[in-house]
Amino acid sequence: MTFDELLELSEVDFINYDFKREIFDLRNLTYDENNPIANMILYKGNIYGSRSDCDRLPLTLEIYKSLWGNEFIFWDTKETNFVEANGETMNSFVTPYKAFYKETYNLSNPHFKEYAKLTHTVGNFIPVYAIKNKKRWFSPFNSKRYSSTYDYWDISLNQIKIILDDFENSNDSIDNFLENPFYNSSVKYAKYIFESAKWILSFNTWPKFVEKNFLQSFLENPKDLSSNPKEFWNNHFKGTVSTKDENNLIEFLIFVNKAIQERSSLIYKQLHLNNT
């Protein structure tokens, strides 16, 4: 699908467009409309080479460019276009799938089937910081986030809010803040957060980070940009990062499915404003 074709979709179709379709077309695979979990498993088994990640396909990068352009610090160079390493999938399919599968919960649960599709819709993608070394581009945010979050986006948002609040209270420039020994401790911030801080801090404040990244639906109060991130289940920020509790997982699925769809709707509206 081209970018123009994507914009021609109705809002409902845009919200529910599964970018795994793009990979299936590249791999000559058959997409099963009625079995999103099977689609996900087939997709995971066919990730290899370039253009394998839905969050960094040429089509996805074009969306990022239209929405964010060069307004924030996405690179450590003067690069002016979005690169493959920018993309990140905010909420992972793998962690809850393993919990459901190993604990033999019902994988035909409609919330879980919906999540298998929504995981690779535009409302679950975000461009993140990328660094260029001698060989390639890579993202410290993408590559190191899993170890401290299990790819649960509420934890990432909470960690992002902490460093942005500290930055706002410091009244420092980005460079001075990052060089300040009080703030550049690996104990204070998760490693992937600190290594991506130039991108995060370029938004200056937590409310601006939320607004510019269309993240209102992931807040405790979506109408208040200064609101805290909504925990996916009780005590998630202070308790165990992952869970095998079915009630926690169902609570997560119900909330995050709705949040992803609402974010996709905001993105749809902004894309049309930017391209009319």
- Give the oligomeric state of the chains in this entry, treating copies of one chain as homo and distinct chains as hetero: single chain
- Average residue pLDDT: 92
Radius of gyration: 18 Å
Number of contiguous helices: 15
Helix and strand sequence? HHHHHEHHEEEHHHHHHHH
Strand order of the largest sheet: 1-2
Q: What structural class do you assign from the helix and strand content?
A: mainly alpha
Q: Sheet with the most strands? A: 2 strands, antiparallel
Overall structural domain count: 1
Low-confidence stretches: none
Terminal Cα span: 19 Å
How helix-rich are the residues, as a percent range? 40-55%
Classify the beta-strand content into a percent band: under 5%
- The tally of beta strands, per DSSP, is 4
Global shape = globular
Detailed description of the structure:
The chain has 276 residues and is mainly alpha-helical. The protein has one domain. It has 15 helices and four strands. 38% of the residues are buried. The mean pLDDT is 92.
Give a quick precis of the structure.
By secondary structure, this protein is mostly helical. It has helices at residues 3-8, 11-15, 20-27, 36-44, 58-68, 94-102, 110-118, 140-144, 146-149, 153-170, 174-179, 191-195, 197-201, 206-212, 246-274, and strands at residues 87-89, 125-127, 131-132, 137-138. Helix 4 packs across helix 7 (110-118) and helix 7 packs parallel to helix 15.
